[in-house]
Amino acid sequence: CISMNYLSDRNVAIKKLSRPFQNQTHAKRAYRELVLMKCVNHKNEHVIATISPHTLPPPTLCATRYLVMELMDANLCQVIQMELDHERLSYLLYQMLCGIKHLHSAGIIHRDLKPSNIVVKSDCTLKILDFGLARTAATGLLMTPYVVTRYYRAPEVILGMGYQANVDIWSVGCIMAEMVRHKILFPGRDYIDQWNKVIEQLGTPSQEFLMKLNQSVRTYVENRPRYAGYSFEKLFPDVLFPPDSEHSKLKASQARDLLSKMLVIDASKRISVEEALQHPYINVWYDPAEVEAPPPLISDQKLEEREHTVEEWKELIYKEVLDWEERTKSNVIRGQPTPLG
User: Fold this and answer.
1) What's the CA gap between 71 and 14, in Å, rounded?
2) Which residues belong to any copy of the Protein kinase domain (predicted)?
3) Residue tagged active-site, from 9, 73, 112, 190
């Protein structure tokens, strides 16, 4: 919701965390989101201005928690309904990728990228929000299952495989396709239907990919009807894109090529965020200060290893809130939005 911050004399957005202390999983998710939002320091990631009221109850009484953030004009769900020219489409994608690159540089995988988690201003400034499902990970594959919005779920997650950072790139590809088509690319009703929607359009993957699946999943996939899929020229014909212009370097063929590199079923052959930022449809905006920004410093390096009771999670969150308020008073908030006007 929207409220007035009388300390800064400007409107702000307020996010109420959904049942943060319902159980240990929800409490850990609330703690993770708070820690990660405190550490991010990039123009394309939503940072918190403050947390809850300045007069805080003891941790045992905390039933809810609110995050106060910079107010934006719309989320991407609304932008998707607009007719965007190549410059705006490309620039929005560039900012998405910059924000993701910043997270990945610290070993953070967002894991829940979707239009409702991306907000924009009328000047095309874009920010990524909602770090509740983000995970910090060392090198190698993550095996932990998670519940992300089905439509943007990568094949390796649908099929119960290990996943790594470019799981976020699949989601960006789905979002880009939605911005071009003005409708969801893979609108599956459940896990099985989601996989069917993917292979109906992109084709049944190769035997090389199928051999990476565990036996029971491989048997199921191999017993499904085989699909040849469609070329990206048929999936995304020129008529879906803004008209090419002699005054612009950006072309429909470039946008389609980028889609074809992000929407790859086999994650080992999918483009990385670094490669996407170098793609001709994106690199016209390339600014080293934005792309190579210093990685966020995660204050709790053992975040993912922690296991606590709900009351212990409350105590940890309470300490993080007090730390944030102390930093607020000292004006040392990294990434604090500058006042408007």
Assistant:
1) 8
2) 1-282
3) 112
